[in-house]
Amino acid sequence: xxxxxxxxxxxxxxxxxxLKAIYETIYKVIxxxxxxxxxxxxxxxxxxxxxxxxxxxxxxxxxxxxxFTIHTFPKRECYFVDLLYDGFFNEDKLAELLxxxxxxxxKHGNTVDRRFPIDPQVAQKTIDESADFGPHYLIRSKQPIDxxxxxxxxxxxxxxxxxxxxxxxxxxxxxxxxxxxxxxxGINVIAQSHVAAHYELASKLAYIDVFSCSFIHCxxxxxxxxxxxxxxxxxxxxxxxxxxxxxxxxxxxIANRYSGWQKVIRGx
Length: 268
Prior knowledge:
- This protein is of the alpha+beta class.
- The protein has a single domain, classed as S-adenosylmethionine decarboxylase (4-Layer Sandwich), CATH 3.60.90.10.
- Helices cover about 25% and strands about 35% of the residues.
- The chain contains six helices and twelve strands.
- It has helices spanning about 20-35, 90-100, 150-160, 220-230, 250-260, 260-265; strands spanning about 1-10, 40-45, 55-65, 65-75, 80-85, 105-115, 135-140, 170-175, 185-190, 195-200, 205-210, 235-240.
- The strands form two sheets. Strands 2-3-4-5-1-6 form a six-stranded antiparallel beta sheet, covered by helices on one side.
C-alpha cells in the first residue's frame, strides 16, 4: 500500500486556479500510472477562508484501497499531492507527470508503505508552526475492528469539529466494488486539506490520514481517533509545506455566505 506525499513549489501555472485543468490532470496521472479509479474526481473550490493566500482548489478521486488528492494554492504558487494505492506504481513517473501538467521549480516528497512501520528517518516528532504549512498524520489501527460505510461516514463527519478543523464538505464514503468489495473508503475535505479513511475487509485494519493546515497535536488527535474506533492505533507525523505569515482576516462576510450549511448540520 504505497503512499507518496509530494509538495510542489514555484508553480506559477494558471492551471492551479482552473477546475477543468485539475480534473484533466487527475485523469492523465492515474491513466498513465495504470491506477484503478472507483469513481470520478470531486473538485471543491475554496475561495472564502480567513487566509486569502489559502484560496485554491481541493480535488480528490478514490482509487482501489486509496486516493489521489491535489490541493492547490495559486497565491502561494504551490500545491500538495497525495497518492495512496493498494499496490505499487512508479513514483518517479508521478513526479514527472505532475511537472509536465502543473510545472514547478522544486519539490519535496516522502514515500512510505502503509502496511509496515514507518521509518523513523521519515517521521517527525515536532513541526515548526512558523514555517510549516501543517501536519500530516498517518494512522493505522493496531488491532482488527468491525467497521462499515456508516461507521466511516460518522467518523469522518465528527472528527474535524472534535479536533478544531474547519470542514468545507461532508464525507463521501464508497466501496471499491458494488458487490464483493474489499475496501470501504471515505474522504472529508477540510480547509484546503483532507481527512481520509480506508478500511480493508480482509485484515479488518483501518488506515487513516489527517492532513491539516491547523496545528493539531498528535496526542489530541490520536485520542479522538481511538475513542471513536475503539482500538489502539499507531500514529506517525510528517510535516508538510511552508506557510507564509501574511494573513487576511477581514473576509468574515464571504466566509459566512459560503459556510452557512455548517450551522444547519449543527442545529443552530
